Fold:
Amino acid sequence: MERAIDLNADLGEGYGAFEKGDDAALLEIVTSANVACGFHAGDPARMARTARLAAARGVVIGAHVAYPDLRGFGRRHVALTSEELRADVTYQIGALSAICAAVGTRVAFVKAHGALYNDAADDARVAGDLVEAVARLDGHLGIVALAGSVLADLAGARGCPVVREGFPDRAYLATGRLAPRDRPGACIEEAGEIAARAIAIARGDEIDSIDGSPLSLEADTICVHGDAPGAVTAARAIREALAEAGVMLRPALA
Structure:
């Protein structure tokens, strides 16, 4: 049976005069792009530039939505009411959708960023608000969710296309949740190790959690953090390793 997986990266994460990551290089490698929508990073001109580059390379675009936390890069929890969270998510998707339409492409999926992503993995209220905002706007939009998360379950129950995500460049707790970034070893930097973990995730093989216990993930997409210093090297290593292992790269959603 042919094996295939999506490879995505978080892109467009600079702001104003400040650049972050090599989007152009990553867009030559990945099959899906999570584009920052202005709440944790990104600005209208950068969103348009990233969308235009992605469209030119046939890369599928997703809205990378976040809590309103520019100063903290979206990695801090922000206490929002359900009304506020749904409106914030709708606003961000709408902004990127308009920009994509202007450059001749479209938004195919939604992925939460940072603290919102982690909260939605276990908090049913946050996950439910995110799913409701997406479904009300466009029931055909996919939702990228941490494999085994509450968000994945709720999105599936709502009838939204669900893309389960794995992270070869991040360590996992034994629970299947990502290890906090301030924990030693939480971020994996060596390209060979990242590529090996990517192959294991793509095949459904076990990987080691941060405490050494085995962990199995069912994933449809693999993420490379575009803001990491070695992101381009890691993405190339993943793509080459997957090809050698006979795993095709293909967008999870089109």
